[in-house]
Design goal:
The protein is of the alpha/beta class. It is built from 11 helices and 16 strands. The protein has a 10-stranded mixed beta sheet with strand order 1-15-14-13-12-8-11-10-9-16. The protein binds nicotinamide-adenine-dinucleotide.
Amino acid sequence: MASSVTRRTFLQVPVAATVAGAPAIVSAQTRGDALRVAFIGTGNRGTADLQAMLKVAGAQVVAVCDLIPERAQNAASLVAAAGGSAKVFTDFRKMLDEMKEIDTVVVATPDWTHKDIDIAVLEMGKHLYAEKPLAVTPEDCRAVLREVKRTGKTFQVGFQLRHDPATNAAMKFIAGGGIGRVLMCHGIRHSGEGLPRNIPWYHDRTKSGDMLTDQGIHILDLFRGVIGGHPLRAYGVGGINLFKNEPPGRTSMDGYSVIYEYANGVYINFSHHYYDPPRFTGTWEKVFGSDGSVDLVKGTWQGREKRETIQLDIPDAKQDSTYMAMAHFVDCVRNGKQPTNNVDSAIESTLQALMGTKAIYEKRIVTWEEISAA
Ligand SMILES: NC(=O)c1ccc[n+]([C@@H]2O[C@H](COP(=O)([O-])OP(=O)(O)OC[C@H]3O[C@@H](n4cnc5c(N)ncnc54)[C@H](O)[C@@H]3O)[C@@H](O)[C@H]2O)c1
């Protein structure tokens, strides 16, 4: 039977800081002193981000933009249903030119567009919540980093899993020494959902950065956060093993396994593919230490020689990770704080993903120095 670890035993560790208690879910869409937020890209993810933002106190969505007018219109309808009103645009530069009152932007456009849109938004003096990855090449990652540093704007990247209540509690427990020395992290992402066929650009690796940089990056970001620092070396194997030319012209992989080595022999072993049948599927994010192991998904831990699995105390357990990430971002903008997923963290997680992808493509070990200089 699961027993409880008290919050006090690990809550004071300054890792993966999130809002101190989830703000009440009340609509802020009519408040005069709220942050004025605009959305660029209201497809799959932009819509989910918008729905989360609409629940955050202290934020008011005033404009939405998508190249596809129906998508922008649909987003405006969601704002209206939440009691607000958003102007609709198909050109984000026009939106930011016309509506000077916008102070904060969420960008959820395809991966290969991040660099140019993020830089343009920052240049126009806006705080920015930018979907992951930071960009799809090391050079473009550094260009975004430079612009964030130059403008000094609040900048958070969409690694919302760090804000998942169970994962956040588990990461704090590890950082507080709960499992002793971290030895290795083991991740599996076998989605059971097949290919994401409704997102055409995802299958072009020049646009998505491929499946590790677009999706595996989430779990690898968590493991990097748990271990600290960045990997020294990566090696992996993968390719298009099953879904050849499906959809037609496909260039992104359908499966891979990758290993990262960190300092002191700490390592990550991660497997990700689309060919799992429904009963052979699942997401697994486990961290193994000298004194025990933690399940980042469930927020549980077990001592190394114990039989009992212990449920950690999870503040805000019922809150959604995207809502928590948006609430954290709004709190950081309003109070001048550094987000957990700031640009320094996001560039390391994105370079880690690009490093693993390069290792797989080139069938050789790739080092951190090499990817940092690329
Ligand atoms: N954090 C997460 O868990 C998560 C999950 C899924 C996707 N994402 C990220 O979100 C982003 C979007 O992914 P998606 O699945 O929503 O893709 P999508 O194709 O469904 O949506 C992208 C939208 O951006 C619009 N767009 C493109 N260029 C634009 C421009 N210049 N101005 C305005 N709109 C523009 C497109 O018309 C489209 O509607 C990607 O970066 C992806 O990696 C993050």
